[in-house]
Amino acid sequence: MTPAEAPLIELVAVTRTYGRGSPDEVRALRGVDLRIAPGEFVSVAGPSGCGKTTLLNLLGLLDSPTSGEVRWNGEPVGQRTDRARARMRLEGVGFIFQRFYLLPTLTARENVELPMRALRVPHGERTRRAGRLLEEVGLTGRGKAFPHQLSGGEEQRVAVARALANEPGLLLADEPTGELDSGNTQAILALLEKVRRDHAASLVVVTHNPEVARRARRHITMRDGAVLEDVREA
Amino acid sequence: MRGWRRAGALRHSRLQFVLAVAAIATAVALPVVLVSVGGGVSAHELSNLENAGYQIVVSAPGVHGITEAHYYTHKILGIPGVTAASPVLSVTIDAFTPKGAVTPVLAEGVIPDQFGPTLSPAEAGLFPLPLPLGDPTDLVHYANGTYDGPATYDVMVSSPYADEYHITTGEKLVLSPAANRSLGTNYTVTGSFGVPPSVLGPTGAFAVLLPLSDLQTLTGLTGGNDPDAADTIQIAVTGSISTNPAALAQVQSKVQGLFEYYGVSSLTQEAQQLQAATGVLTGFYLALSSVGITIGLLFLALVLLRRVEADRRSIGIRRALGIPSRTIAAEILGGGATLALIGAVAGVAAGYLLVEALATWASSAVQEAARLAVFEPPLLTELVGGIVGLSLLAGAVATRSALRLEITEALR
Predict the structure, then answer these.
(1) Which of A83, A97, A115 has the CB atom closest to B325's CB atom?
(2) Contacts of residue B318 in chain A, CB cutoff 8 Å?
(3) Contacts of B1 in chain A (CB under 8 A)
(4) Which of A39, A76, B152, B279 could form a disulfide with B134 if both were Cys (CB 3.0 to 4.6 A apart)?
(5) Is the CB of B322 less than 8 angstroms away from the CB of A106?
C-alpha cells in the first residue's frame, strides 16, 4: 500500500479485552494499528491465543473493540447500530470459516443465494449469479446437494462462493484449509487467489499453514495480542 | 417443501413438532366443544322461548310459591288483551296401575281450557285439544273458592308411561302423594299425550296431566301455608300485543299490579336474560380454556427456545453473514405461527369430531346436547386467529434469545 492509497479498513490503537474487571480477564488485542488496502492479500500468523481470530472478527465487524477505532473507507464504525453493521457485513464482507459453516437445511445453491436473498437481489439475477459462482468454484451440477452430501473440499468451495455472493470488497478467511487434506488445500488456495484477483477484493487469511501464508503478499505475525511483524513483499 | 424447510425451524425435531401441535390442538379442542355445545343448547332453549305459546309468566320464590292461583287467573283473564292464563302446578306423586305396578310420575295440574292456548305450536301437536278432561274450567270442583264441588277424577297419561305399563283409555289409575296405595285416589284415564324432547332438566317421560284442583286436593296444596298453590301462571296475549313491545309491557305492568311480591316477566326479557347468561357462560368457557391454551403456548415457547438453542450456530452464521435481524425474527415467529396454526386447525377439527362422536355414541342427555351443537365459523376463525396471534408472543421469547446471541460465541 502506498502512503497515498486510502485503506479499505483500518484499525487504530485497537484493544479488545474479554471479561474486563474479572479474575479471568483476557486481553486479546493490545493496541493494534493496521491498514488493509483494496486488493491486498494479507496472511495473519501466530501461535494459538495470540489474537488472530479476534483481529479477524474486528475486521469483519463481528465484534467491537474495547478501545480504539475501526474505520471502513475512512469512516469510523464504532457508533453504527447493529443493523447498520449487519448491512455493512452483508454488502462488504465475505466470510470463509475453518469449519465451512454452511447452513445444513439449505442446498449448496441456496447457501450461495442466502446473502443475495437478504440483499433482495432479484430472483433472476440471484439464480444467474449463484450458477456462475458455483461454476467458478468448480461445483457445476452440485447445486442441489445438501452440505452433508458434499466432501470437505466441496463444502469449502461452496463457502467461498457464498462469501463472493454480494461481490464484497473484503474477504476474511479463518484457517480456510484447516479441515482439508493437502489436495483440497492446494485447490482452495488456488481458488482463493483466483477469486481475489478476479473480484479485485482484499483477502485477509488467518492461518497456521506456512504454505497458505507463502501465497500472500503481506505477512503479519502476531504475538500476545500485538502485531509483532508486518512484512510486505516487494 | 422448500418453503417449509425455510419457514419451519423444527424440521429436524419431528417429536417436538408433533408434541407442540398436539398441545395446542388439545387446548383448542376444549373451547370448541364447550362453546359449540353450550351455544347450541342455549340457541335451542332460546328458540323454545321465542316459539312458546305464552308471552308473560308469573313466578314466585320457593316451591309452589303462588297462592290463590284460581283467583288470580280469573283476575288476569279480566285484563284486556289477555287470551289465556294457565296456572301450572308440578308435583311428583306415585301412580299405581291396574296390574299393581307403582312408579313415581310427574303430575301436572292445569286448568284444561287455559292450558291449550299457552302451548307452542310444536307442543300443541303433542296434546289432543281440547284436553279430554272433564270440568274444562276447573270451576265445578273448585267452586266459589272451595273444593266442595264434585271432581271428575279424569287423568291423561304420557305416551311413554302408557306404553311402558300398557295403560289404555278407560282404565283406572290410583294416584297417591306417597308410595302408599291406601292414601291414593282412583282416576280414570281419558287420553294420552306425547312428551317433547328436552335437553335441560328432567324429561318427564312418565307424566300425568289432571285438573289443577284435583292435584291440589291430592297433594294437600289447598290450604294452610299453600292455599290454592301453583308454580307459575303462563299468560297468552293477542297477536297484535305479542308483536308490540310497548303494548306487551303495558299488559305485563297490569299483571304485575295484581301481585305485590311475585315476579312477572315477559319471554322477551327471559330471552334477553338467557342470551346474557349464554354470553357469560361462553366467557367462562373461554376463561377456563385459556388455562389450557396458556399451557399450550408455554410449551410452544419452550419448543421454540429449544430450537433456537439447537440452531445457535446456524443463527450465528446468518447474523455473521449480515442477514437482517428482522429476517431471523420473521423465520422464528413464522415457524411458531405455523405450528400454532396447524395446532389450532387440528384442535378445531378434533373438537368437531369429538362433538360428532358424542352425538353418536354418548349417553342420551349428552347425546341430545351434542346434537344441538352449533359451529360458528366467525367464532372459530377468531379462536384460530387468536391462537396464532398469541403464538407470536410465545415466539417473541425465542426471537429475543436468538437476537441476543453473541455472534462470536455462537460460531465457536
Answers:
(1) A83
(2) 103, 114
(3) none
(4) B152
(5) no
Q: Model pTM?
A: 0.67
Contact B323 A115 (CB under 8 A): yes
Q: Which of B6, B322, B408 sits opposite A87 (nearest CB)?
A: B322
Domain parsing of chain A, residue ranges: 9-232
Structure confidence at residue B197 (pLDDT):
63
Touching check for A91 and chain B: CB below 8 Å?
yes
Which is higher by pLDDT, B293 or B53? B293
Whole-number percent of chain A with pLDDT over 90 = 71
Average pLDDT of the residues in B369-386: 91
Across the interface, do A87 and B324 touch by the CB < 8 Å criterion? yes
Instruction: Quickly state the pLDDT bin for B12 (edges 50, 70, 90).
Output: low
Give yes or no for A95 touching B (CB within 8 A): yes
Interface membership of A148 toward B (CB under 8 Å) = no
Q: Does a cis peptide bond (omega within 30 degrees of 0) precede residue B150? A: no
Distance, CA of B186 to CA of A214 (rounded, Å) = 122
Interface contact B320, partner A, CB < 8 A = yes
Pick A9-232's CATH classification: 3.40.50.300, 3.90.226.10, 3.40.50.40, 3.40.50.9100: 3.40.50.300
Please state, in angstroms and rounded to a whole number, the distance separating the CA atoms of residues A41 and A57: 17
Report pLDDT digits (tens) over B350-362: 999 999 999 998 8
Binary contact (B6, A105; C-beta < 8 A): yes
> Edge to edge, what strands does the sheet with A41-45 contain?
A93-96, A170-174, A202-206, A41-45, A218-223, A226-232
- Is A213 within 8 Å of chain B by CB? no
Q: How far is B301 from chain A (nearest CA, A)?
A: 22
Residue B243 has pLDDT above 90, yes or no: no
pLDDT of residue B1: 41
